[in-house]
Amino acid sequence: AVVLKQLPSGLLLVTGxxxxxxxxxxxxxxxxxxxxxxxxxxxxxxxxxxxxxxxRKAKPTKNEKEMFVENTAEEPKISAEKIALQKxxxxxxxxAVKSVDMLQSYLRSVFTLRKGQYPHEMKF
Length: 124
Fold this sequence. Notes:
The protein has helices at about 20, 65, 80-100, 105-110; strands at about 1-5, 10-15, 25-30. It is an alpha+beta fold.
């Protein structure tokens, strides 16, 4: 994934980009990121990429009678706003990724660690 920026909450905003490896816009804690020496020059990103974009709606509280009733609520769907924003960010990031040699195939590959491999000892 490509780190786009650090949000005010301290989390990192990352994307695949979605067109390349299917990773959507996500917030990720810095502890779960392995930095590499590869850097990509990105154009200016939209100002709408903030923590407020990822805030979930509050669930309604249930009373005692509703607590044991089977849940019939629909699964949450991705809003059209987020889909449009993902396409906009992909349009900015994909050309930058393609400009770096072998980066597109690197982002498509699956990353795994095996026994005896430690990420802090690796050079990417």
